[in-house]
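Example record

One chain of 470 residues, shown exactly as stored in the release files.
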Amino acid sequence: METYASLLAAITPTSGETREVFDPATGELIGTAPVQGVADLEAAIDRAEAAQGAWTALPDDERRAILHRAADAIEASSEALAELLSREQGKPLNGPNARFEVGGCVAWTRVPADTPLPVEVLVDDGENYAEMHYRPLGVVGAISPWNWPMMISIWQIAPSLRMGNTVVIKPAETTSLSVLALVAVMNQVLPEGVLNVVTGAGRVVGAALTSSPRIGKIMFTGSTPVGKGIIEASAQNVTRLTLELGGNDAGIVLPDVDPAAIAEGLFWGGFINTGQTCAALKRLYVHDDVYDAVVEHLVAFAKNVPMGVGLDENNVLGPLQNRAQFDVVDRLVQAAKDGGATIALGGDPDYDAPGNFYPTTIVTDIDPHNDLVLEEQFGPALPVIRYTDLDEAVRLANELEVGLGSSVWSSDRTRALEVAARMQAGTTWINSHGGLHPMVPFGGAKQSGYGREFGVEGLKAVAEPHVISG
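Predicted structure tokens for this chain:
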């Protein structure tokens, strides 16, 4: 079991280039992170290649047992991991935040270990016989983001290891400590070289990782423009890809809802992790019959959700992780103001206060083509668009090039299912938004990426299908 101090000491570099890491809630210096380069990446790939043969050769049950021991190690160090995550990423300890994320790491390590993937008999008719096996791809290159740095890393690591691959992971530059700590804890029980982490700039380390001919698979969660660059960089090697890219999720509220009953669900759909979630609710279309009531109850709920420094046990909303993201949110809310929208709540940040805090903001009576609606804000600002015609609402929801998640809110499940079938997204939730389950495949439509994570489909995605016929 690690303490926060011992965990931080274990990952603090003693040589080489470093950068200072500051708490986005307070501006306090919390530590230093290594800044590595292409030579470090090549060395990590060397270690992964050297370890891969023995790891693949282990019986599946043994790899599964080792993953469970890794989950045990995460669980034993959960409080230290949560504190480091809160200090570096900014998210509070409580609510659906740091402790929740570390708990998700445990669950998403155990479930791939427990998910059976037997040989599939494809044909057995007395004359023909064929079966499908799933073989390791080799070394998986994983690139994780700064919003859920530990949990999304696990989404990439656990299924890859389960299927006999080894992993080289590059964390986001602004949340390197969180991933270094997670890997350090897991490597207490994993064989040497099976899981490797390399920090550094995306344009240097990330570019070299995605273009390396020694990488069998790239898993990336991040923006669509960066995803397109990865496609180009990997094309020469025909590297397998799973890309979970940007989203701008739409929710449609039908006129039969109970506004008071859905307010809490709407809030957490939009503001989980202070809005810094790929599959958060980012634009909400509400029928005119219930528009004012939905806004009233949503604002009333939002007013009572405390925002502040993450180590304060009372807070459940935190700062933006970095100032660049604060500036994006601020620019888009200003665009809404300039376009004549109403600020029903928030919209008035204190630019001189410490930390990257942007207040919980709800924007109403906004043009459906305002920048705050069309661009992914990735922060605590939710535009609420009024509609009268459902077909028009569905058209607006589907008109963007992205399609990660979506939701439909209604007291009539049959009606909700009908509308959900018309939504262009990888997932459509009914009367909730953004909930994930480790056995339910998750991924995007359109320019929100391709490939699926979680469950049986997620295991198959980090393996090479091999048909044996005869």
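Notes: The chain has two domains: 4-245+448-469, 249-430.
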